[in-house]
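Fig. S4 source data, part A: sequence.
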Amino acid sequence: MWIIVAATFAFENMANLALAVNLVTYLNAVMHYDIADAATHVTNFMGTNHILSIVMACVADAYMGRFKPVVIAAFVECLGLALLTVQAHSQKLKPPLCNIFLPTSKCEKVSGGNAVLLFFAIYMLAVGGAGVKAALPSHGADQFEEKDPKEATQMSTFFNALLLGLAVGGSVSLTCFVWVQVNKGYDRGFGLSLIAMFLGAIIFISGLPRYRIYVVQGSSAITELLQVLIGSLFAQRFYEKKNGFFF
């Protein structure tokens, strides 16, 4: 079953990494944002993705388990990619064609409902990618029993395969998908990312009958750490008031 999880991780990275590399160019050349604004939007997107992965990990550990968040996040990511693909394909959903690289050109920037659609799709990708990255590796680790020497060895193999999937998926994304975006159109490039993510989701769901499902514990390591920190702060305040001094 760990092979299915590693394959899903490979397809998810295949779908996503091309966006991280080429999204600034897309926002600049097609949506007519300045380079500085385009880079800011991309860094905001990537920062949101990484911060939300912490939140998603807490939710998965404490409330939902790890299987459900992966499935939900994968289809959220598919929907975001589908919206990006439709917008990149339809001229009505983009600004008028204009060569932004000409010094004399006055290109119209995406605005109104089309801008809302663009950022809605991008941040759906951030939410979906965060959920998959937070819960998928842990779900794979749940398939092994650490106290069993044989399965403990297989767990090491699983994480090696996960890293291999990251490398292979990223290589395909950063070469083939980026080439398609630049030379054949962003709609086709985003479409390939959509197909890759959809295949990853289907492959992951196909393993459901054989998965070991993580039992929700009602808490996570991060929430327990925060509880200890908040408790210590309250204890410190109580001690200060009782003794009349600060430490």
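Fig. S4 source data, part B ends here. The radius of gyration is 22 Å.
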